[in-house]
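User: Please predict the structure of the protein below. I'd like the answer in structure-token form so I can feed it into my own downstream comparison script.

Assistant: Understood. Taking the following sequence of 134 residues as input:
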Amino acid sequence: RTGGTAGGTAGAAAAGTVGTVANVKGSTLYVTSSDGTTVKVKTNDSSKVTRNASSSAANVHPGDTVVVQGAKASSGTVTATSITATAKGVSAFGGFGGAATGGAATGATGAASGTGSAGGSASGVPQGFAPPSG
């Protein structure tokens, strides 16, 4: 699957890929897409790499952007079943246009149905959140 925007030189076609890393050799990643195709991904000093990992609430800081899913009590308090946090100043998608399907979109839908979203808006999308196009 391709889509979104990837950095490149002026005039070069922009493309991306989504999948599972099958192998890493130096600064080159080999990514297997959902259709089984392996794509060679070359990186360089200008490549921005962002890595998500399991964490805890203690590692979420003021200024971070969060998408919260959970049950909302009559008091308005949300008991979180899932929190996705992105550090202040870090792009939530790191250039993976279209890769948010089922991720942030699910959180936004959950927020719209009243299950809670920190810093949300009436539309169910967190303030300042702009999903990638593509």
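That's the full token string. The chain has one helix and five strands.
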